[in-house]
């Protein structure tokens, strides 16, 4: 991580607010209630700092309204630092580490991290159809199980259960990581059909699941791992397996175990880091700013309604 902790945005409320505004509103403030840019900044001792009035819908707002930061009592500099810490760490940051570095309670740190993971869930802009692959393009598909290791739990505690995750990687493009209830042709096909165009060349291993779903695509190539075959020409799933290696180091080394209830959010975080990696010319600061932009229009309550 290359974070300059002396930067005012990490300890000064006004600097943090100005930074959030510049990222969320590069062309000036916009009302999160109605979308209008006809706004007036409210000044004076009778108004809290950063308050803006919308001249169209007559509602007040600040830069945190209409985002995962809305109604949070955590100071804005801590929010900005939280975004930067999580966006700049390939192996993730634990809630305990955020609790120590930000000087907030563990409960607040855990909730903040979950809100930031929600902001990292950025769906591509499409016409509603699949967003990966296409004619002449290759998408790798692979599955693994993620959860935790028995040696990482306290004595007397049960061994953590592992849960299936499907990764789809477009060569030279984006990645999608989705938790599925089980590894069956039906569950994997649902993920593939949602994200991968049928004219794509699909790459998998030789599992029975892959054999069934491969028929849905223009071309299907598979490598036989049971016979120690990992590469045959341009047929391989090494890119997806590289992603899984990073995910498992993140889970085992940083978080130790992840429950099924929150597994998808951790996969979303890993997906975001992969899709905004430095090899694409995106540095830590730009990655954090992308996550801040993703906070728009999202709310995450501590106890979500059923």
Topology:
Layout: H1 13-24, E1 39-41, E2 52-54, E3 60-61, H2 76-87, H3 95-102, H4 106-119, E4 138-146, E5 163-170, E6 175-179, H5 185-195, E7 201-205, H6 208-213, E8 219-223, H7 238-255, H8 260-275, H9 284-294
Parallel strand pairs: 4-7, 7-8
Antiparallel strand pairs: 1-2, 2-3, 4-5, 5-6
Helix pairs in contact: 2-9, 3-4, 4-9
List the domain count as a whole number.
2
Largest sheet: 5 strands, mixed
Strand order of the largest sheet: 6-5-4-7-8
Taking pLDDT < 50 over at least 5 consecutive residues as the criterion, the unreliable ranges are none
- Helix/strand order, N-terminal first: HEEEHHHEEEHEHEHHH
Shape: globular
Query: What is the CA–CA distance across the termini?
Result: 38 Å
Give the % helix: 25-40%
User: Strand content of the residues, in percent?
Assistant: 5-15%
Please state the second-level CATH architecture of the largest domain.
2-Layer Sandwich
* Mean pLDDT across residues: 92
Structural category: alpha/beta
CATH T-level topology of the largest domain:
Nucleotidyltransferase, domain 5
> Regarding CATH, which class of the largest domain?
Alpha Beta
Number of helices: 9
Structural Rg: 22 Å
Number of strands: 8
């Amino acid at each position: 991580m290359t974070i300059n902790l002396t930067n005012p945005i990490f300890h000064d409320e006004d600097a943090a607010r100005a930074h959030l505004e510049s990222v969320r509103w590069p062309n000036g403030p916009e009302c999160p209630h109605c979308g209008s840019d006809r706004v007036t900044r409210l000044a004076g001792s009778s108004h809290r700092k950063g308050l803006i009035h919308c001249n169209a819908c007559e509602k007040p707002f600040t830069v945190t309204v209409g985002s995962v930061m809305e109604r949070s009592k955590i100071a804005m500099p801590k929010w900005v630092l939280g975004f930067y810490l999580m966006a700049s760490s390939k192996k993730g940051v634990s809630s305990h580490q955020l609790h120590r570095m930000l000087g907030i309670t563990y409960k607040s740190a855990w909730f903040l991290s979950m809100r930031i993971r929600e902001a990292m869930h950025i769906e591509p802009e499409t016409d509603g159809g699949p967003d990966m692959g296409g004619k002449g393009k290759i998408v790798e598909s692979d599955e693994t199980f993620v959860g935790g290791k028995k040696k990482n739990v306290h004595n007397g505690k049960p061994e953590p259960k592992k849960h299936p995750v499907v990764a789809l990687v477009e060569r030279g493009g984006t990645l999608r990581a989705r938790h599925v209830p089980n590894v069956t042709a039906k569950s994997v096909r649902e993920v593939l059909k949602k994200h991968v165009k049928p004219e794509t060349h699909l790459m998998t291993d030789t599992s029975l699941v892959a054999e069934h779903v491969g028929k849905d695509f223009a071309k299907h190539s598979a490598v036989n791992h049971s016979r120690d075959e990992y590469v045959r020409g341009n047929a391989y799933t090494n890119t997806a397996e590289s992603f899984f290696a990073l995910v498992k180091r993140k889970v085992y080394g940083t978080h130790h175990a992840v429950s099924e209830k929150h597994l998808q959010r951790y996969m979303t975080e890993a997906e975001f880091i992969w899709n905004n990696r430095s090899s694409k010319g995106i540095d830590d600061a730009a990655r954090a700013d992308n996550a801040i932009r993703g906070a728009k229009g999202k709310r995450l309550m501590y106890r979500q309604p059923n």
